[in-house]
């Protein structure tokens, strides 16, 4: 097996907030240095099962944006397994400047072949995916963000005896696979909250289709839109790092934690609730974000 279950589970740390609820964070970001957080678990069955059945000429193909944590993780899997990978990247304008993008350069160093497509072509990625599968019948074509039924099964591994203790389970939501797995496999009495960083009305149905449970709520946490980083987000992430020595990134986990604390202040959670947030990794994105932010004299502490 290329992706192995670690012998020790990641820590659950308390965030000492002095409020009428208790807040904790489960550090899935510590699971693997390069295939971190939910990416590890979303790829776990997809990759292991595929490689078990396709020992001859395996090939991994996937999709993502310029700073995609998923592209970064799949390229690292390819390097670790010694198999070729192809990344279909949104934005043809990146074709002549990808070397200055830390995520894409990292993927390239891991041996990933990068193919840049227009936003229009990228929107039709389901068609593109079918086409690639026909052209490379033996390849594993992993959808954007890695979200599929295999991913949902893998997310089950983020839950254990310790996570059963919590009233609320919180995660950032992009393509929906992570929250679907938490919702599907958590305890009956637990409530799941998804912090949506993308404005996508189809997410609720998509997640329901994967979990078939109604135990989750989605809360808008986009702070102005996917990938938008406001001064208040930077301040929050930098303060969080300084106060608790836990790094967050600006696209998913930073926005989730900021919104969770806002909800706590607004009294959203009943008194004495125990809240668990999943740190889903993605810290590789900070370097790329800082290259953009530094031009505006802003910076995230790594
Ligand atoms: C760091 C991080 N957190 C959360 C998510 C959201 O996960 P999902 O796409 O399964 O909703 C992603 C995207 O994969 C991510 O990279």
UniProtKB/TrEMBL annotation:
One Pfam assignment? PALP
Q: Where is the Tryptophan synthase beta chain-like PALP domain?
A: 11-281
Q: Name one GO molecular function term.
A: D-cysteine desulfhydrase activity
Q: Which UniProt keywords apply?
A: Pyridoxal phosphate
- N6-(pyridoxal phosphate)lysine PTM positions: 39
Which residues does the entry assign to the active site, renumbered to this chain?
68 (nucleophile)
Gene3D superfamilies noted in UniProt: 3.40.50.1100
Q: What are the required cofactors?
A: pyridoxal 5'-phosphate
Q: Which domain of life is it from?
A: Bacteria
Give the UniProt family note.
Belongs to the ACC deaminase/D-cysteine desulfhydrase family.
Q: Can you name this protein?
A: 1-aminocyclopropane-1-carboxylate deaminase
Organism of provenance: Chryseobacterium piperi
